[in-house]
Amino acid sequence: MTSQRTRSRLVDRLIEKGINDSKVLEAMRLVPRHLFLDEAMASRSYEDTALPIGYGQTISQPWVVAKMTEWLFASSFPIKNVLEIGTGSGYQTAILSLLADKIYSVERIQPLSERAMGVLNKLELDNVEFSLSDGHWGWPNKAPFDAIISAASPAELPQELIKQLKVGGRLVMPIGEIEQRLYGFEKTINGITEICLGEVMFVPMKQGIES
Question: pLDDT value at position 211?
Answer without folding.
Answer: 64
